[in-house]
Amino acid sequence: MLPRFLPTILFAWLVAILACSHDPESAPGPDIEKHLRLTRQDPTAPPAYYNLAVAYVKAGRYDEARINYAKAIDLDPQYALAHDGLGLLAQRHDALDEAAVHFQKAIDLDSTLATSSNNLGSIHYQNGDLEKAAAAYRAAVRHAPEQLSFYLNLARTQRDMGELDKAVATLLKAIDLDPFSRDAQVALGYIYAENLHFDAAIKAYSEALRIGPSADLFIDLGDVYTRVEKLDQAVSEYEKAIELDENNAEAHYKLGAIYASQRRIPEAMTLASKAVELDSS
Q1: How far apart are CA 217 and CA 230, in angstroms?
Q2: pTM to 2 decimals?
Q3: How far out from the chain centre does Cα 221 lie?
């Protein structure tokens, strides 16, 4: 006969085993396991450690990723992609100066590495150094002209520098690359509106809405119509925004403001009250 406490001990032991088997740190996924095997098979191959680091990043195990990027660089100091990986990890932890050093090192080792140029541009942009950011983004576009996001980053920087004509030209290239880029059309509409090219802004925002409607975009288009005093069209856009998002306080407020200007006071009061209610919640 088994002692009475033995089933309890066995149960606790089983629970501990199951807990360990579900611990992601103790049970690496198949991708990590595959690359671990490759490092054991060839412990002097830098790509094996680089690929293992990438697998760790995908699993959210950043300390182990850092160790393996560094191991790849120890084995091959010219390994540009490993420096780029270390830069991304540093940027994730807001160590921007350290990240910039790694991205610049990657570029020094391989000037055609467009992702490193783009990443360096993002560091300069975060630091407010728009001239350097634009230069880095231009390099990224030059070496990877098929990458839409690089154009958008460059255009945003040019816009912030006040180089609106250059920003528009960059966005038009992005649209040539991908005519269905909603982000490019939205950015283009914003620049046109800020530069008082209202017809062009209406065209860009309308195209963006055709690609992917949203309440915010209907409001943006309504704002342009309001600025050119086409209030019936503005009302239509704000109403579409409310239809799409009935809890959008901004659309209620702006529609109410137009109604007030048209002396439709009861409707304006209703919309204003709803806007306040939504805004306070």
Answers
A1: 17
A2: 0.80
A3: 24
Residue whose entry in the numeric block shows the structure tokens 């702006």: 254
Q: What is the rounded distance in angstroms from the CA atom of residue 271 to the CA atom of residue 279? A: 12
Nearest one of 112, 71, 107 to 87, comparing CA atoms:
107
**Residue type for position 91:** Q
Q: Helix 215-227 to helix 182-194 angle, to the nearest 10 degrees?
A: 20
* Alpha carbon distance 275, 252 (integer Å): 5
Task: Identify whether the C-beta of residue 280 lies closer than 8 Å to the C-beta of residue 271.
Answer: no
Two structure tokens written together for 260: 């007030």
Angle of CA points 231, 237, 243, to nearest 5° = 135
Q: pLDDT tens-digit profile of 131-182? A: 999 999 999 999 999 999 999 999 999 999 999 999 999 999 999 999 999 9
Nearest Cα neighbor of 218 from 247, 193, 240, 250 is 240
Q: Which is nearest to 53 in space by CA: 63, 43, 45?
A: 63
pLDDT confidence of 102, banded at 50, 70, 90?
very high
Beta strands in the chain (DSSP E): none
Helices (H), 178-248: 182-194, 198-211, 215-227, 231-244
